[in-house]
Amino acid sequence: MLMKLAVLIPDTHFPYHDVKAWKLFKKSLEILNKDNAANGGIHEIVFLGDFADFFAVSSHGTHPQVIPMLVDEVMAIKEEFDWFDETFPDAKKVFIEGNHENRLERYLVQKAPALFGVTETENVLTIRGRPNWKFVPYGPNQSYAICGSYLKARHQPIANNAGLTARRAMTSLVYGHIHRIESGYAVGLDGTQHVAFSVGWLGDKNKDKIFGYVKNHHDWQLGFGIVVVNEKTRHFYHQAIPIMDDYSCAINGKIIKL
Question: What predicted TM-score, i.e. pTM, was given to this entire model?
């Protein structure tokens, strides 16, 4: 029986990420891949959206003390993509577009419509043309089945809490966007179980000039997720991995630190 391992990358907002959390995450992936080597290592790496921030083209405006260049943001992201390709060449990488990546297309429609389609997100980030990569566009019907399982992934939840999202989705769903770790379950009359959950974020909440002075910054939880899928039954087993204040996490009973 083949059990496939998938890793979930929540909102990271490169290059405005939490540097220590990102280093811990990458170290954790390398350990996971090694520990699961006998079963093929990590099979899928799923970006849940807003991996890029695209602050330079934000429709909300930019802070006068931050003068970003889009090319700098793109280069930082492409360097990370290169790392994933070099470190996990056989793993499938699934890039689910978030509302922040979609900022670029909205900007083009408003400011430079003649360039729309030529400089779309998939091209700018060089996702198209990379082996083993899949791009899932942002939109209301966005959905991707992780490792072919019953668990679907998209960027945004479809309700204001996990329990209601599970009931409305009528399927199991993992999502990003909210920067928190949460989960909710719904069980149908026939006993069918659905779960909706999120796995936190990897951005730097101290960068108020980027993210604004949002009142609920304090509950933005650093973390990521893993999913194990039974290829035969399509059932899945998920786990949110919170990152502690000392930049450590626990996976399969093993404490990982920088």
Answer: 0.93
